[in-house]
Amino acid sequence: MHPNPFIHTTTTGGGALACSAAIAAINVTLRDRLWEQAATKGDYIISKLESLAAQYPQIYESTLAPHASAGVSNVRSQTVMLTLYWQAVGEMDTDYTVFAHLVDGKGTVWGQHDSVPMNGTHPTTLWQPGEFVTDAHLLALPPDLPPGDYALEVGLYQVETGLRLAVAGSGDKVTLDKFSLAR
C-alpha cells in the first residue's frame, strides 16, 4: 500500500484489523473481477423485478434506475447512482474533476454530478500507478424529464480552465450507457 493522507476517511477507520479485512476484500474483488459479474447479476435481478412488477402492479410500482440494454420507465424525480472504476496508468501532476452527465439525443444535459474522485477525498494527483479507484456519483433526474433517448457520459476536466482530459478514441468523454425513457 502507498501512503495516503485520506486513509482515515474510509469506512475502515485505519484500524489494523479493519484495514486487513478491507485489503482482503479488495484483493478478492480484483482477483475474481467482481465488477464484471455485477452487470450480469444486476440485469438478472432487474428482469425478475420487472416481471414481478408486471404481475403485481397494485403492489409494486417500478422505479428502476437506468441499466444496460433495457427500456426504463418511471424514473422521473429519481436519482441515478453511477459507480465508476478508474485505474491509474501513471502518476498525474494535475488534479482533475470527474463529470457525469445524463444527456438526451441533442446533447442537452438533464442531470449531472461533478466531483473530485471519491467524493472529493482522493484527487488524481494522489493516484498511484496501477491503483483502482472506486468513484460514486448521484445524478438527480428532474421531474419534467421528457420521454426519449438518453446516455450517461463521463470524463475528467481541470476546474481552473474547464479543459477536458482527452480520451483515447473517444474525444473528451466516454459514453457508458444508452437507454430509452418511455412515458
What does this structure look like?
The chain is an alpha+beta fold and 183 residues long. It has a domain at 66-183: Immunoglobulin-like. Helices cover 21% and strands 28% of the residues. The chain has helices spanning 16-32, 34-55, and strands at 79-87, 97-104, 109-115, 132-140, 148-157, 174-181. Strands 3-2-5-6 form a 4-stranded antiparallel beta sheet, with no helix packed on it. It has a two-stranded antiparallel ribbon with strand order 1-4. Strand 2 (97-104) and strand 3 (109-115) form a beta hairpin. The longest helix has 22 residues, at 34-55. It is globular, with a radius of gyration of 19 Å.
What's the short version?
The chain is of the alpha+beta class and 183 residues long.
Q: What is the structural class?
A: alpha+beta
The number of strands is: 6
Q: For the CA atoms, what is the radius of gyration?
A: 19 Å
Largest sheet: 4 strands, antiparallel
CATH topology of one domain: Immunoglobulin-like
- Main β-sheet, spatial strand arrangement: 3-2-5-6
The CATH top-level class label of one domain: Mainly Beta
Order of helices and strands: HHEEEEEE
On the 0 to 100 scale, the average pLDDT is 76
- Shape assignment: globular
- Level of helix content? 10-25%
Low-confidence stretches: 1-10, 60-77
Alpha plus pi helix count: 2
In what range is the share of β-strand residues?
A: 25-35%
Using the 3D structure, state the CATH architecture of one domain.
Answer: Sandwich
Multimeric status of the protein: single chain
N- to C-terminal distance:
49 Å
